[in-house]
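Before the break, one more example. Copy the sequence into your notebook; we will annotate it together after we see the structure.
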Amino acid sequence: MATAPGTAAAKKKRSARHPSAVKRTRRNARRAVINKSRVSRLKGSLVKVEQAIAAGDRAMAMEAFKAAQPDVHRSVTKGVLHKNTAARRLSRLNARIKAMASA
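Here is what the structure looks like once it is written out:
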């Protein structure tokens, strides 16, 4: 008998049965922890740049931007960001920092 969608029985997750699927589940859990730390590191470095820009301190913004660049590029090689996304973010941050000099 099939269960109706939305019922408790339908929401219950089934665990993997095949050995390769069990192994994949274990691996996915390990990788999720690693990827979460990579995303957190990336966001933290970008937030420092944003805060420096908001404070209006160009020197501090440039320093934070130079520190954030390797993190952004590393996130591309590790598969956290797409290369075009990384390039776009860096370009926009750099443009905002350059605009601070004229303002």
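The helical segments are 8-11, 19-55, 58-77, 83-102. The domain at 19-102 is CATH 1.20.58.110 (Methane Monooxygenase Hydroxylase; Chain G, domain 1). Try to locate both features in your own notes.
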